Amino acid sequence: MQTEQLVELAIAALEDLKAQDILPIDVREKTSVTDVMVIASGTSSRQVKSLAENVLMKAKENGVKPLGSEGLDSGEWALLDLGNVVVHVMQPATRQFYDLERLWQGAEQSRAHHSQE
Asked: What was the pLDDT predicted at 44?
């Protein structure tokens, strides 16, 4: 399955169970680990677990073998490694604390900001 199709599948699985603030970030230029990170929020540990499990189930139904998953027990931050796509599902406070959006998107934005000064 191509990266774009896998991103769409992950987002659809997250939307099925009402994930909040779904954000795909293309990281091909920043890391060789994966092509796209999809970050989403769940309102409770139960929802985080359900969202993550739904993404894994949909991936498997479409012939994608997940390379790994972490955090399904605690439900605070679940990480799903689907190869070309890594999905992070977090509770809002955890997401805000780790601020992956800034980490993965911010490098270019901060360089652009400094060059304008």
From this structure: 97
